[in-house]
Structure formats: structure tokens, C-alpha cells
Amino acid sequence: MSYPFKILNQSTSTIQSGRVGWRCPSNIAIVKYWGKHGRQLPRNASLSLTLSNAHTDTYISYKGNKGGKLSISFLFEGEANRAFEDKIKKFLDSVLDHYPVLNLLHLDISSSNSFPHSSGIASSASAMAAIAMCICEIDQVISGNGSETIDIHKASYLARLGSGSASRSVISKLGAWGTHAEIHDSSDLYAVAVADVHEVFHSFHDDILIVSAAEKSVSSTAGHALMNGNVYAKPRYQQANDRISELKKILKSGDVDAFGKLAEDEAMTLHALMMCSDPSYVLMEPGTLDIIREIRNYRLETNTPIYFTLDAGPNIHVLYPDSVKEDAESFINQVLVPYTANGRVIKDIVGNGPKKLV
Fold it and tell me: Is residue 3 part of a domain?
């Protein structure tokens, strides 16, 4: 697939130095994408809630580099992190065909998270989205196009090349990535905002219970690759696209119970796919299962609309509408927090996407 945006070429090495900074949130997919092909393209469409408090802050100072080759330095939470630096350098090298101006730059990058990285809260999504927003702004400044608004489709496209889920982290409130007949302007190349959504979902809560802050034993990249040999892959892709159609109706109607059921079904499907891969793997912890049982029992006993979902990790996202906030928080604090690591909970809510920091 060709790049759908203008590629800017910079002929001079006389570039003014500058500094940019962006905060990008994580997102939690309700319908998951699991399996990809080509250059970071999804096997099925996905749809997510953009979060607010689980985010990555990234600052990039840039200056001209007469060596004609991109160079970077990287600090994560104030300290050198060679593994992260190598990953970011590999990502930026991979997009030089879209941003050849990067070869004229040295970038000093500093990044920090409000949540544990590599623990199943889509840290790569927020991280790569923040870098993409920074690169897009740097490109605008150097090209002198005068616009103060970042082209979100362009930023989503760039973020996707670093992490598929990152494509959705530049979208406000609810984002969809992947071509789907029922989502306007949908594309495998970038994410788009989901329209026609009931207001109840614009203030939906997602309290993230940190069952384990340890790095996952299997990366999402490896997990996606294992779908290539998974015997359930083809029906799964069809199921996901069918669930997008179902979810679109739910989002329009405001049916919270149907939303919660679908979210839970998708979470269990994702982890079932991991468990039947070859090799198989289990990312849930005992505390994960305990929390799932407690949520289902509480909902059955009280009829309170509290639900859960998971990403590719052990940590539980507790989903509920703002109308039951007081009851939900009491239940979480009294019953669920004891199952977490050191009582850690990230209280989150649907958010408005990227925020400019500089």
C-alpha cells in the first residue's frame, strides 16, 4: 500500500533546533485485533476506548545533523534504556521513506509513563503515538507549512508503523482501526473516530487493576505472529468483524449491559487464542481469575453494570458507566484491591486523545 500523504523532502542541513512534547494516552480495545500481516496491517478491524490517565509523556529536542544519518539518544523516566532506545531507533529508521528529513536530524528523546510498561496496558500504543505526534510536529515546523494542527490521520498512520494499537491512541474517545463496511472512512492504514455514539460511553470508566507490574513473558509482537499458524485464526477474524457490527449498534443505542457482555467475551477470546497457539502461553495470573469471579458474582448479586476486559496481559480493566461510580469504587476498593500488586489501581476514564505539552 502506498503512503496516502505528501512526503516532504528537505534539501538543506541548516535546520533550526527546537523542542516538542506530546502526551498520548493508552487505549483499551473492546473488539481486539490479534494477528497482522504486511507492514503492520491488521487481520481484522478493532475498536477501542481512548483513555486519559494511563499515558506517555514524550519530549523531543532536535537539531541539525550534518552526518546525513539519523541519530538519537533516549531516556526513559530519566535513565538510559538501551532496549527501548534500540526499539525506537528501529522504528524511526523504518519510516525514513516517509520522513527523509529525519536523516538530517539528531533527536534527544525523553519519555515517561504513568503506568507500568510492558505489563499489558498497551504501553507501546501510548509511547509510539506520542513519538508520532512529536515527529509530525517537527516535520511541520521544518517544512514551514504554517499549520498549528496535526493531521491526525497522518499521525495515526505513522504511529501504526511503530505499534498497531498506537494508531488508535491519537483518536479522541472511541477509535476504530481496520477496514470495516460499517465504519465511515475506515482503513487498515490509520484509525478513525467512531461516530454516532451514545453519550453514556463518552464518560465510561476504566479502572485498571495492576495484578502484576512485571514485564510480560511473551511480547504482543510474538503473540500476533503465532496467529499465522493458529487453526482458529480464520473464524476469529470473521468473529471480530461481526462483533464490530454488533458493537456499532450497541454504541448507538447506549445498551451498557450488551456492551459489557461483548467486552468480556472479547477478553476471554483473546486469551483463549493465546492458550491454543503453538507454542501456547498463559498471561493471566491467579489474581486475574479471582477478580473476574468477584466481578461476575457482584454483578449477579447486585445487578450493578460492572464489567471487565483485558489486554494481552494479566491486568484487569474494570469497566462501568459514570452513573454507578460510587458503588463501583466502593466494590473495587473493598473487594478487588486486595488481589492487586501493592494495591495499585489506575483510575481512568474515556479521554480526549493527545495533548500538546510544549
Answer: no
* 104-137 CB burial, b ≥16 within 10 A, e <16: bbbbebbbbbbbbbbbbbbbbbbbbbbbbbbbbb
Within this chain, do residues 189 and 235 fall inside the same structural domain, yes or no? no
Q: Is 39 exposed, middle or buried (0-12, 13-18, 19+ CB in 10 A)?
A: exposed
Domain count, the chain: 2
Q: Can you give the pTM of this predicted structure? A: 0.94
**What's the pLDDT band for 19 if we cut at 50, 70, 90?**
very high
Of 157, 179, 194, the one marking the end of a domain is 194
- Tell whether 207 and 326 lie within a shared domain: yes
User: Rounded to an integer, what distance in angstroms lies between the CA atom of residue 121 and that of residue 127?
Assistant: 11
Number of helices (H), then strands (E), belonging to the chain: the values are 8, 14
Q: Are residues 177 and 28 in the same domain?
A: yes
Distance, CA of 162 to CA of 94 (rounded, Å)? 9
List, for residues 200-228, the tens digit of each pLDDT value: 999 999 999 999 988 777 888 899 999 99
The CA angle 15-21-25, to the nearest 5 degrees, is 145
β partners of residue 309? 317
Q: Tell me: do 46 and 183 sit in the same domain.
A: yes
Q: Tell me, what amino acid is at 302?
A: T
